């Protein structure tokens, strides 16, 4: 029997989590997944159970998807991680109500949750988003881990009939890195276009990478930014360190955070 696919959507009482839920519909269809709504109890359990049951029925009616409900009690971050590890969801769709701090998912440890999650996390901030995806922003650096995003971006672009917009950011203080990243970005662009995906490439000198990515995403009206998450690394590995966390924190564009796979031997690009 084939393993079921799941999209996990943590739900609280805020409208932002319902915005995130609506953004999960196309992803669920794309991945042939059931949608699992997770609610972690904090107050009136009876009233919250009724709310979740109504929401599940409404979601099934509107989306035509299979929708299930899970409940947990305790710390939101801890319980969401437990359920995610049990279900092994294709993607966790996370509604973010405000700027993140060191405390919080949906108000409680979101930054830590995204950084440590073993599963891809799509974080949604802001109330207005297109139904679908026209532009995928693909920031690049030279790490093997970051290169894993390329094929994932191509997968999404093919499904949504979207274009991929490459962005490479470099410091004018590091000429060697600048030359390598420009050559690599050109190589990636050629590879993406060979797959039949419209693709553009922009290179920007900047010392503030997170700000540059966020501003460029707004400029091109991106529908999705793809980043990698990992422990803090150096400048050349910026897209999987704390700069990635800043992008998640500051951008109103949905962000897909991917955790690097350990085996990167299949990567076909070589910017060196």
Polypeptide structure, described:
Helices cover 41% and strands 22% of the residues. The radius of gyration is 19 Å and the shape is elongated. The longest helix has 20 residues, at 175-194. The model is unreliable at 99-108, 231-240 and 264-272 (pLDDT under 50). The chain has 272 residues and is α/β, with parallel strands linked by helices.
List the helices and strands and how they pair.
Elements: E1 5-10, H1 15-31, E2 33-41, H2 45-63, E3 67-73, H3 76-87, E4 91-95, H4 110-116, E5 121-124, E6 135-140, H5 144-147, H6 149-160, E7 163-170, H7 175-194, E8 199-205, H8 209-219, E9 224-228, H9 242-250, E10 255-258
Parallel strand pairs: 1-2, 1-4, 2-3, 4-5, 6-7, 6-9, 7-8, 9-10
Antiparallel strand pairs: 5-10
Summarize the structure.
This protein is α/β, with parallel strands linked by helices. The chain is built from 9 helices and 10 strands.
Structure characteristics:
Rossmann fold; single chain; 10-stranded mixed beta sheet; alpha/beta
The helix/strand order is EHEHEHEHEEHHEHEHEHE
CATH fold name of the largest domain: Rossmann fold
Oligomer: single chain
The helix/strand class is alpha/beta
* Count of the domains: 2
Tell me the strand order in the biggest sheet.
3-2-1-4-5-10-9-6-7-8
Major beta sheet summary = 10 strands, mixed
């Amino acid at each position: 029997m084939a393993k079921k696919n799941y999209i996990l959507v943590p739900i609280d009482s805020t409208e932002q989590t319902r915005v995130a839920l609506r953004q999960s519909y196309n992803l669920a269809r794309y991945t042939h997944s059931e949608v699992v709504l997770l609610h972690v109890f904090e107050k009136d359990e009876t009233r919250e159970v009724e709310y979740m049951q109504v929401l599940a029925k409404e979601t099934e009616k509107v989306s035509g998807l299979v929708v299930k409900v899970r409940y947990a009690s305790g710390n939101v971050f801890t319980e969401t991680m437990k359920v995610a590890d049990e279900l092994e969801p294709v993607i966790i769709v996370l509604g973010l109500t405000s700027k993140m701090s060191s405390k919080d998912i949906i108000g409680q440890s979101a930054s830590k949750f995204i950084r440590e999650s073993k599963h891809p996390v799509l974080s949604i901030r802001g109330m207005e988003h297109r139904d679908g995806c026209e532009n995928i922003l693909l920031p690049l650096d030279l790490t093997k881990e970051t290169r894993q995003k390329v094929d994932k971006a191509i997968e999404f672009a093919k499904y949504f009939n979207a274009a991929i917009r490459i962005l490479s950011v470099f410091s004018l203080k590091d000429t060697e890195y600048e030359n390598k990243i420009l050559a690599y970005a050109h190589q990636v662009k050629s590879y993406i276009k060979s797959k039949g995906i419209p693709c553009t490439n922009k290179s920007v000198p900047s010392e503030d990478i997170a700000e540059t990515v966020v501003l460029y995403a707004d400029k091109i009206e991106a529908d999705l930014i793809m980043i990698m998450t990992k422990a803090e690394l150096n400048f050349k590995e910026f897209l999987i360190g704390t700069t990635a966390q800043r992008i998640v924190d500051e951008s109103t564009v949905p962000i897909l955070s991917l955790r690097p796979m350990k085996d990167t031997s299949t990567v076909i690009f070589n910017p060196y």
